[in-house]
Structures are given as C-alpha cells and as structure tokens.
Amino acid sequence: MTALSRLLNGCPLLPIIQTETPQQAVDIAAALAQGGVSAVEVVLRTPKALDAISAIRSALPSVLVGAGTVLNAAQAQDCKDAGAQFLVSPASTPALLQAMIDTGLPLAPGVSTVSEMAMAHEMGLNELKFFPANLSGGTPMLNAVRSILQQVRFCPTGGISAANLTEYLSLPNVFVVGGSWLTPADLVKAGDYTAITALTAESVRLANVCLAEKSAPLRKSA
Ligand code: 3PG
C-alpha cells in the first residue's frame, strides 16, 4: 500500500469538499487547485458525495481526490469504486481499519488518543489523521506522542485555519494539515470560487514558508 504522504508528494494542505452536486464539487476543486493545492478530500456527508468524487476524477485529472468521513467497510469499497485515490476516516475501529486496508488505497484513519494511535500502528498504519486536533490536545499532544510513537506521522484536522496551520505543519510528525477552512459554507453557497482560490493561495503561501524553514533547520539556527 502506498503511503498517503507519498501520494500527496509534498502537498501540505488537504482541503475538505462538502458538496450538494457533482458540478459544485468540480467547481470547488478547480478553485482549490487554482489556489495551489493538488489534493482534495470529498466528505461522505451529502447524498452526492460519491458522484462528486467520480466527477472530479474525470473533470480534473491532475487533482488527487480522496474520500473522507469513511465510517464502515461498505463505504470504503464504494469510495474506491467511485474513483477515490485515498481514504480518510474520522475514527478508528479494528473492523474499519481492516476494511480500509483491504481496499489497498493510501489511507489516514482518524485517531485522537494514544491507545487509538497504538492500535493503528499495531495494524501497520503509520500515517494517521489526528481529529479533532484542537479538542484533542493540539500541538502539545502531537509533541507528547513524538517520542512514544516515533514512526507515526499525522494529518491534523479539526480547527485548523490560516491562523494556526504553520504551528501544526512545523512539527516533525505532521505531514499535511486538513479541514474546511478553505471551503467555508457561505462561500460555497454563494458560489464565490474566486474567494476560495484567494483563501487557498494565502494558506499555500503560509505553508510553503513553513515547509522551507522546516526543511532547512541548520540554516535557520546558523
Ligand atoms: C474533518 O472531517 O476533518 C473535519 O470536519 C474538519 O474539521 P474543520 O471543519 O474544523 O476543519
């Protein structure tokens, strides 16, 4: 199984798309891509989510499309059948983890406690979604687990915004940050894709500055 971080290939932001129609999903994904992100997560919280995944795959072949809010084995398979290139869940149970693993897709199952992290790690999963990040201890929690679970890296989501994304991304055990701050419901409802592109471009800029510093720690301290 390819690791999610490998698939994302350095893309530091993973915006969520919650959509009512496949066309709206394509328009949001195009606006996000225009702003500089190369991967999106369509959440299974609306009836058309699976169609939205397929629509983005065919309309925007250069954008990586994953499925989020996967909660059971049937959904994991449905997402794969719809064309999802990776899977994200908000929670972890042994059955859900096994079902996600069985799809063969890159994945980031959701965890918020050390025991859940250890369970996922025990099943061979070392890239996990930390959710809800802001309510589960935030960056101090991620720092605290670093020395315990040395191979595990995280995609924090839940309360991430332009104001705190660099705090998370600068941690050595964070490979991407995700969430809905780039696709706020009011902008989606208004069809204001220009504003979504602008929000995205600003967060991409912040992320890139942060990653440049992260990859050059010696230069920084010199
Ligand atoms: C998720 O599914 O990861 C969360 O809904 C993201 O949380 P946020 O809406 O606070 O970004």
Any overview of this molecule?
This protein is of the alpha/beta class and 222 residues long. It is built from eleven helices and nine strands. The protein has a six-stranded parallel sheet. The N and C termini lie far apart (39 Å).
Quick structural summary:
It contains eleven helices and nine strands. With 222 residues, it is an alpha/beta fold.
What's the overall average pLDDT, rounded? Answer: 96
Structure class: alpha/beta
**Radius of gyration from the CA trace?**
16 Å
How would you sum up the major sheet?
6 strands, parallel
> Which range best describes the helical content: under 10%, 10-25%, 25-40%, 40-55%, 55-70% or over 70%?
40-55%
Bound compounds? 3-phosphoglyceric acid
Number of helices: 11
What overall form do the CA principal axes indicate?
globular
CATH C-level category: Alpha Beta
InterPro entries: Aldlse_KDPG_KHG (IPR000887), Aldolase_TIM (IPR013785), KDPG/KHG_AS_2 (IPR031338)
Pfam families: Aldolase
Protein name: Bifunctional 4-hydroxy-2-oxoglutarate aldolase/2-dehydro-3-deoxy-phosphogluconate aldolase
Family: Belongs to the KHG/KDPG aldolase family.
Tags for this model:
single chain, 222 residues, alpha/beta, 9 strands, binds 3-phosphoglyceric acid
List the SSEs and their pairings.
Elements (H helix, E strand, L loop, with lengths): L3 H5 L4 E5 L4 H14 L3 E5 L5 H11 L4 E5 L4 H10 L3 E3 L5 H10 L3 E2 L1 E2 L2 H9 L4 E4 L7 H9 L6 E4 L8 H5 L7 E3 L5 H6 L2 H22 L2 H5 L1
Parallel strand pairs: 1-2, 1-9, 2-3, 3-4, 4-5, 6-7, 7-8
